[in-house]
Amino acid sequence: MSLTWVDGVAAETVPADDRGLQYADGAFETLSCHEGRIQHEDLHRSRLTRALAALRVTSAAEQGARLFAEAGQCLETARHTGIARLTVTRGSGPRGYTPPETPRLRSILRAYPRPESPHAELRCGVAATRWATQPQLAGLKLLARTEQVLAAGEGAADGWDDMVMLDSDDHVISSSRANLFMLFGKQVVTPCLAQCGIAGTRRELLLTEILPATDYAVEIRPISLAECLSADALIATNSVFGVTPVTQVCESMLVSEGGREWVTALQRAMEDQLT
Prior knowledge:
Helix 2 packs across helix 3. The protein has two domains: 110 residues, Aminotransferase class 4, branched-chain amino acid transferase, N-terminal domain (D-amino Acid Aminotransferase, Chain A, domain 1, 2-Layer Sandwich); 152 residues, D-amino Acid Aminotransferase, subunit A, domain 2 (D-amino Acid Aminotransferase, Chain A, domain 2, Alpha-Beta Barrel), CATH 3.20.10. The protein has seven helices and 15 strands. Helix 4 links the parallel strand 7 and strand 8. The longest helix has 19 residues. The protein is of the alpha+beta class. Strands 7, 8, 9, 10, 11, 12, 13, 14 and 15 form a nine-stranded mixed sheet that branches.
């Protein structure tokens, strides 16, 4: 069963003139919750604040804090354990792209049971759909997710669990729904997201807390598909499933004994962060 709140009040509908519906004018966060508590709320709130600032919302930090306080109250009252999506739009407005002078943000919070992961490991294809380059919005989780929708559709049609997505320069950016990390010996590499892609909260957790506590060197840089396919191990990470190994990309298998140990260690460390 799912629960839905609009502006902190139980509801199932939004006005037809909502700018999130009309123009994808907004941002969202996918939250993991336990007994009403949002896990790593600070990371999500910070990213939402950055998205609101990029959308030129006035007092983005204060708005972000208010929206998360409202969402937290709803989830705590429901004692929700599972996944929640907090969508924030610029609210209702007249026809046309130009934002209203004094918009009233609208929040749509929807809580779901935690899905069971259908895959202990992932088999991925490579999407024909590329990430569009937009450095002004890179890293943010905005409502317009057309490239990922198309890539996920390619994967479903071709029988893959997920799809590796590249940018226009043939650099690996992400999968259709997760950030990627690769192991090369004692070095861990994750794609640079300065031009496109979404900087996930679990990616940040790995970069700032989990990986620094290990013996692995970490580097953020552009990565070609050929280099990715030569990795000792590849993982996908997001707030819904944590850390999942990618064992196949097209015809290439990514399996090594050292890679298995690394993946297992990261999975345990991520679970420890969420308990």
